[in-house]
Design brief:
Number of strands: 15
Number of helices: 14
Number of domains: 2
Order of helices and strands: HEEEHHHEHEHEHHEHEEEHHHEEHEEEH
Organism: candidate division CSSED10-310 bacterium
GO molecular function: transaminase activity
Family: Belongs to the class-III pyridoxal-phosphate-dependent aminotransferase family.
Largest sheet: 7 strands, mixed
Protein name: Aminotransferase class III-fold pyridoxal phosphate-dependent enzyme
Strand order of the largest sheet: 4-10-9-8-7-5-6
Structural class: alpha/beta
CATH superfamily of the largest domain: Type I PLP-dependent aspartate aminotransferase-like (Major domain)
CATH architecture of the largest domain: 3-Layer(aba) Sandwich
CATH class of the largest domain: Alpha Beta
InterPro entries: Aminotrans_3, Aminotrans_3_PPA_site, PyrdxlP-dep_Trfase, PyrdxlP-dep_Trfase_major, PyrdxlP-dep_Trfase_small
């Protein structure tokens, strides 16, 4: 197909998060493993797994064959009916989730899972308030974007009533001014306790947390922070909701991000790695306590495509690949190697302020001064736009990464090898010469 003609057709497509006059996408043509090729035949190393979702890599034959078999048998049936793939996937999810998170409501994506978790929490508790953190992202639909604690929320305000924000841990740039995790004694948790006391803890339906903050910087909390959230919820009858849309299914080196903290939430929401993006699918997962409530009371929620047979068959095949190829273990092992490379980059480049990672999920945070931690681009590009110049250099060198503000995100397919990490990090190393050049 002629590339110019495809570009002409593409003018009819509306793209998110930017003015349409600024849209000039690279037209992708095919993908295999950790690589994608554009319509011109140029190869890119997909070091962001699509959009943090293609965990098993592109074009995995086991997944594609399972999809073909399901399409030949049954693609869709109304959600009030049961199917083998829906039942099997729910059972397989219950086998890998922590604790008693055994009951699954299927959605089309992560944002819809969040929306339904908001409703379930309010119905279960009879309360209205929903707590969520600054520097968080929960999705672009009405309720999910209100829970979000970054500039993507601004255009949707005032948003859903009853949502309250609080500061979570961000040890590199502590909002309370502490120099280190060792000296702060989790003052962010103490501040949350005070905020809840003043706000009325018995009026709060749920606290939503990303166990590891995703597109606001791969912010990794101290070990006891999430235990403290769990305790606050238990003491006050509050539903703890873990947003695992990005962290789930091996991204962090364990099945779920919250597994690093030995905490079991009441509700978990997942998507992305559930099907590795081969078909859209999300899920809201309840523990036994939530399930028993709705065993006696109707859950007022439903979706035309809930438990879509093809999507569920795709999810089944993905979980089989995770087990068969030991991808959760590979995420942990390759993640250790990736972290070593990131530490080397921090030592080499004066524009690198911090590097953070869990498994194959990492972030490079840029700075104008490693000693003062002064930002280079600033929050929401308040100082300058760095990401455009950085991204263009990465694309030119054949590497796809997601960048914004002072943040450069790394999240390759979980199938990646050390040699492929070396290939990508050599390109990042070269691109960081540009950010170094911005420092006077």
């Amino acid at each position: 197909m002629n590339a110019d003609e495809i570009k002409k057709w593409d003018r009819h497509v509306i793209y998110g998060w930017k003015a349409q006059r600024d849209v000039d996408p690279i037209i992708m043509d095919r993908a295999e493993g950790i690589y994608i090729w554009d319509i011109q035949g140029k190869r890119y190393l997909d070091f962001c797994a699509g959009l943090l979702c293609v965990n098993v890599g592109h074009g995995h034959k086991h997944v594609l064959e399972a999809m073909k078999r399901q399409m030949e048998k049954l693609t869709y049936v109304a959600p009030m009916f049961g199917t083998e793939p829906k039942a099997k996937l729910a059972k397989m999810i219950s086998e890998v989730t922590p604790g008693d998170l055994d009951y699954v409501f299927f959605t089309n994506a992560g944002a819809e899972a969040v929306e339904n978790a908001i409703k379930a929490s309010r119905m279960f508790t009879g309360r209205n308030k929903i707590y969520s953190r600054w520097r968080s992202y929960h999705g672009a639909t009405s309720g999910a974007i209100t829970l979000t604690g970054d500039p993507r929320r601004w255009a949707a305000e005032p948003g859903l009533p009853g949502v309250v924000k609080f500061f979570g841990p961000y040890c590199y740039r502590c909002p309370l001014g502490y120099e280190s995790e060792e000296t702060c004694n989790l003052q962010c948790l103490e501040m949350l306790k005070t905020q809840m006391m003043l706000d009325g803890p018995k009026t709060i339906a749920a606290i939503f947390v990303e166990p590891i903050v995703g597109t606001n910087g791969i912010i990794i909390p101290p070990y006891n922070y999430l235990k403290g959230i769990r305790q606050l919820c238990d003491e006050n009858g509050i539903v703890m909701v873990a947003d695992e849309v990005m962290a789930g299914f091996g991204r962090s080196g364990k099945w779920f991000g919250i597994d690093h903290y030995d905490v079991v939430p009441d509700i978990m929401v997942v998507a992305k790695g559930l099907t590795s993006g081969y078909v859209q699918l999300g899920a809201m997962i309840w523990n036994k306590k939530i399930y028993e409530h709705f065993y006696e009371h109707p859950f007022v929620g439903g979706l035309t495509y809930s438990g879509h047979a093809l999507a569920c068959a795709t999810g089944v095949a993905n979980i089989e690949v995770y087990h068969q190829e030991k991808l959760i273990e590979n995420s942990y092992t390759r993640g250790e190697y990736l972290h070593q490379k990131l530490v080397e980059l921090r030592a080499k480049h004066r524009s690198v302020g911090d590097v953070r990672s869990k498994g194959l999920w990492a972030c490079i945070e840029l700075t104008a001064d490693q000693n003062t931690k002064a930002p280079l681009a600033g929050f929401a590009d308040a100082i300058r736009n760095v990401s455009n110049g950085l991204t263009s250099r990465l694309y030119e060198a054949g590497l796809y990464l997601f960048t914004k503000w002072d943040l450069l995100f790394i999240a390759p397919p979980l199938t990646i090898t050390d040699a492929q990490i070396d290939e990508a990090m050599a390109i990042v190393d070269q691109a960081l010469e540009y950010t170094d050049s911005l420092i006077s």
